[in-house]
TrEMBL record:
It comes from Pseudomonas taeanensis MS-3. Keywords: Membrane, Transmembrane, Transmembrane helix. Pfam families: NnrS. The chain crosses the membrane at residues 20-43, 63-80, 92-108, 114-133, 145-165, 177-196, 216-236, 242-259, 271-294, 306-325, 337-358, 364-383. This is Short-chain dehydrogenase.
Length: 396
């Protein structure tokens, strides 16, 4: 059986052997392109560019549901094979799913009719949730069902945004976009809670694993889903002091997790400090929202961008750098340039949160340039890994 599976895999082009390959490659390239277009448009260099739904709707949708979802798809389609011991999506079915994602990105970039845009965009997340859910169910992997739930909730958020786009209702668009972003934050919390302590233990040579914290993990998940729900319901569009305790509680539990996982040895390994530094943006983002609800911070967007750039994109880049090495059979030693990439993305977050409110033009282009440098460095050193076979000859 294993021999037949191995023979069949050798007939598949390496790019289509596992989900991480096309989605990590295209997702990181799209991150570079999308922010480049957005910053150029904001600074007036693309006055004639008019994507479907308008530039603001495009940015609101494409960062969480274009870039973010691509990386989530690549990660889950690959991880579910390890969790279940069953072959993951590959070959033509994987190429078809990826083609649907790519077609939607092209549709958003152009002035296609809204009906065509919806036709190519609406199916992706339900299909992804169905594929992951079916594999988990077949293997009896109930422990991972919450990840399918988050995918379905993200589907609902995306549909809310698209419904608002169809109606021309900006409030509905904001609710869907922000709820989707904070659901990505919930995924970062869940996945980070699994991989950061494990990677840290292995990376620093710690003998005993970190003590599990199931109650704290559950609390983080419930509070994160509660935060996303509050955006979907529209409660977070204006300061609401009664919501401040929710975000303060999230700040506390994220801080407790970081403290529990910390080891001085992480600073010797870029693949570790990048994960810890990115996760640290989660309590900063939730603290920012708490202060905004209490009237102590003028702009909620500072908290949203701390989450989007610092936490979500930061964890994504750190995970891409490590997971791509492991799944292509290479030693877990990132190229030296990736340390600069991680630092550049951290600087992008700092500039977006601290400089943009005081110097919008300088802050935007500097932050955007740092973001683009980070993903350009990743593509420079990792792109070829995705279309080449594993170096150890193993499947995948």
């Amino acid at each position: 059986m294993q021999l037949r599976d191995r023979t069949r895999e050798l007939t598949i082009a390496p790019l289509w052997r596992l989900g991480f390959r096309p989605f990590f490659l295209a997702g990181s390239a799209f991150a570079l392109l999308a922010i480049g277009l957005w910053i150029a448009h904001l600074l007036g260099y693309l006055p004639a560019w008019q994507p479907a739904g308008g530039s603001l709707a495009w940015h609101r949708h494409e960062m969480p549901f274009g870039f973010g979802v691509a990386i989530v798809a690549g990660f889950l389609l690959t991880a579910v094979q390890n969790w279940t011991g069953r072959p993951g999506l590959s070959g033509r079915p994987l190429a078809a799913l990826f083609g649907l994602w790519l077609l939607a990105r092209l549709a958003w970039l152009t002035e296609v009719p809204l009906s065509l845009l919806l036709a190519v965009q609406l199916p992706f997340l339900p299909l992804l949730a169905g594929i992951i859910g079916r594999q988990l169910r077949a293997a009896g992997q109930r422990r991972n069902y919450p990840l399918v739930l988050v995918l379905l909730l993200m589907t609902g958020c995306e549909y809310l945004l698209l419904y608002g786009l169809a109606l021309g209702d900006e409030t509905l668009q904001r609710r869907g976009a922000l709820a989707g972003l904070w659901l990505l934050g919930a995924l970062v919390s869940v996945i980070g809670g699994r991989v950061i302590p494990f990677f840290t233990q292995r990376g620093v040579g710690r003998i005993s694993p970190y003590a599990p914290q199931p109650r704290l993990d559950l609390l983080v998940m419930l509070l994160s889903l509660g935060a996303a729900l509050s955006f979907a319901l529209g409660h977070n569009l204006q300061p609401q002091p009664w919501l401040a305790p929710l975000f303060l509680a999230l700040t506390l539990v994220h801080g407790l997790r970081l403290r529990h996982w910390y080891d001085d040895g992480i600073w010797r390994a870029p693949l570790l400090w990048s994960l810890h530094a990115a996760y640290a943006w989660l309590p900063l983002a939730t603290l920012g929202l708490a202060l905004w609800h209490l009237g102590l911070l003028a702009q909620a967007s500072l908290g949203h961008h701390a989450l989007a750039v610092g936490a979500v994109a930061g964890v994504i880049l750190a995970m891409l750098a490590r997971v791509s090495l492991g799944h292509t059979g290479r030693p877990l030693q990132a190229p030296r340039a990736m340390g600069w990439a991680f630092a550049s993305l951290q600087l992008a977050a700092l500039l977006r949160v601290l400089l943009v409110p005081w110097a919008p033009v300088s802050g935007l282009w500097l932050s955007g340039a740092c973001w683009m440098l980070a993903f350009a460095l990743f593509l420079r050193h990792y792109a070829a890994l995705f279309w080449r076979p594993r170096v150890d000859g193993q499947p995948g």
